[in-house]
Every structure is written in C-alpha cells, then in structure tokens.
Amino acid sequence: MALSKIFTIRYYAQNTGFFLVIFYFFFGIVPGGQLLSYHQTLIKGFTGNMDFLALVCLAWLLYNLKCMAFVVNVLSAKDHTFLYGTLGVLEGAAKWRTWLWLHVTLYAPILIYSCIATAIAMQLHFYSSALVIGLFNVIMIFAPLWVYDRKMKHPGTASFLARWQQWLNRNIRKPVWAMYGYELLNNDTKSLAIAKVVSGFVVIATCSLMGNTYDERFILVGFLVCILFQVILIYNHRRFDDLYLSLLPQLPLPVWKRYLQTGLLYLVLLLPESILLTYKVWQQAAPAHLIMLLATGVSVLMLLRSLLYFPRMDQDKYLRWVLIIFVSLLFLGLARLYWYGIALLQVPAFTIFYNRYYRYEAPLEKVD
C-alpha cells in the first residue's frame, strides 16, 4: 500500500490532465451508442495494416518510456532515499514480483487496450498482428524491470537520456543555425516526439483513406495537417532565439544566408514525415509532386517564422495567421495552383525576414 501511494497514486495524480485529454479523444467525442463500433473499427484499422501498427507501437513505447522516467525520477529524489533500504533488500522472486507489480500498475491502460486489440485481431484472423502486439507488450513489461533493478544497484548512474544528451553535446558539432534542432532533441523531446508520432498517424491515415486512386490534392491536405502539428515548435523557436541567441544578428552574415539556413533547419524538421510519405506513395506519386509537398511545407514554416519577427505577434494573432495561411493553401490546392502557392508563401516570407531580421528586438519580459 505504501508503494502504491509513492508510485501509482502519485503517477496518476500528476498526469490527470494527460489522461483526461486521452479519455476525451478516445471516448468523449464518440456518441455512447457508437463507442463499441468506433473502437472495433480503430483496432481493425491498425491490426490490419502493419505500418499503422508500427506507429501505434511507437506511441505505446513513448508511454512506456514516460512510466519508466517517472519511476526513475522518484528513485532519484532526495526524499525517497529510504526506498533503497526497503526495495534494495529484496532478492530473487520477491524483488521481480514487486517491480513487475509496480510497472504493470503504471502501464495498465496500454496493457488492457492491447489485450483487447489482440483478442479482436485473433477474431479477425490477423494472427501476425496479434503476435506482434503480444511480443511487443512482453518486452514493454519486462525490459523496464532491468532498468529499475540497475537503478537500485547503481543509484548515482546517469539515465540513458542524460547519457544521450552528454554524448550528443560532446561529439556532435553544432552549427549556430541548427541550435534549435539540438534543443528539441535535448530538452524538448516530448513535444518533438508527439508532433512526429501524430504526423505519422496522419500520413498513414491519409494514404489509407485515399485508396488506390492517387490524388495529389488529397495528399497535400494530409501533409498540411502534418505541418499544422509543427506550428507550436515554430512558435517556440522565437522564444529559444530570444533567450539564447539574441546576439546572433551581430555576427557578420548576410540575411539571405540566414534565411537559407533557417529553411534548411525546417527541411530537416520535416524529413520524418516526408520520408514516410514518400515510402507510402512512391509508386503512385510523381517526383515533382513529392518535391512540391516538401517545398510547400518548408515555405509554410518559413512564413510562420518570419511573422514572429513582428514583436507584437502574440499567440492569438499567430494562430489567426496560421488559419489564414492554411485556408488559402487549401483553396490553391483545390485549383492545383501548387507552385503559385509556394511563391505566394516565399515572397512575403523572405520580404518580412529581410526587412525585420535586424530590426527585431526581443521583448524584455521574454529574456529575463
């Protein structure tokens, strides 16, 4: 009971908002009479498509890492050092049963849903998917136990994430223009991972709904939805520059080079979605269409970043511009005026960037 208060109850109390959002999207927005059929269709969708199942497993993996990080953080807290004198004395089967019980109580939402998914997959004769889900969850349940046991035996050892950050900072040369990318990999991995996983779901759903008839307008709409999930990352880019790179404009570098470097950063940011989309439609899409999609994505992000050089561009105004840009692109896409849309994005983006870059001053309240 004491361990439940320290680990399980505290975990769910700290993540109440997270679970409310998940509950709303999976249960709240669906009418009660359609709830069962909705989840049956959802499970049939990802058990009948290995690409979709891979993304679902990735989402489950991220949740499992969240559980593991919570346990490790509790064990690392100074006010929980007494746990080393209680859990640390356990040996053999008692030790592993205790860690298994603790982890299963945290991983239970995924475990229950995956068991239901396995049963439905077996009923639909998707035996390979059922096997994948079963083996995956076995790994997700038992692999963390070794991590917890190692933490108990080596309490001063840095976590894998900390060692990854140390290796990244020590061995990889960081160009100034790519600093925000390293910030996302080091200190904002949660936002980055959520954006990429959701974008992956959108790409797979778009390609599945399109069927066998390829339509670049349909793909463009799906890719614009993927870009929409990167918007908050672009908004945070200004805050990062204000805090850490406010002296960057004083370096002797032409504005057009800074513009190209920012575009290169956003090109790298969109690579995961672009690679997945290319893999899904390679046999149907013309190379020019794939180049158009990537150019559109980078152009949208560049315009959104350029707009943030207006100091009074708060989040509400920023989101209004996001809506205007995306609606405009949807109409241009319906008319198949793709390259005109890219030009209409790049011209104001570069114009604003060129005229506002050296005039921009970070608000004082953002750098204190």
Please describe the structure with a list of short key phrases separated by commas or semicolons.
368 residues, mainly alpha, membrane
Written overview of the protein:
The mean pLDDT is 85. The chain has 368 residues and is mainly α. It has helices at residues 2-14, 16-28, 35-47, 50-76, 83-86, 92-123, 127-153, 160-171, 179-186, 189-210, 216-228, 231-244, 255-269, 271-281, 287-307, 315-334, 338-356, 364-367. The protein has two domains: 2-156, no CATH class; 176-367, no CATH class. It starts with a helix and ends with a helix.
The percent range for helix content is: over 70%
In what range is the share of β-strand residues?
Answer: under 5%
- Oligomer designation: single chain
Order of helices and strands: HHHHHHHHHHHHHHHHHH
* Broad structural category: mainly alpha
Ranges where pLDDT stays below 50 over 5 or more residues in a row are none
Query: What is the β-strand count?
Result: 0
The global form is: globular
Sheet having the most strands: none
- Gyration radius (Cα, Å) is 24 Å
Work out the helix count.
18
Summarize the structure.
The chain is mostly helical and 368 residues long. The protein is built from 18 helices and no strands.
SSE map:
Layout: H1 2-14, H2 16-28, H3 35-47, H4 50-76, H5 83-86, H6 92-123, H7 127-153, H8 160-171, H9 179-186, H10 189-210, H11 216-228, H12 231-244, H13 255-269, H14 271-281, H15 287-307, H16 315-334, H17 338-356, H18 364-367
Helix pairs in contact: 3-6, 4-6, 4-7, 4-10, 6-7, 10-11, 10-14, 11-15, 11-16, 13-15, 15-17
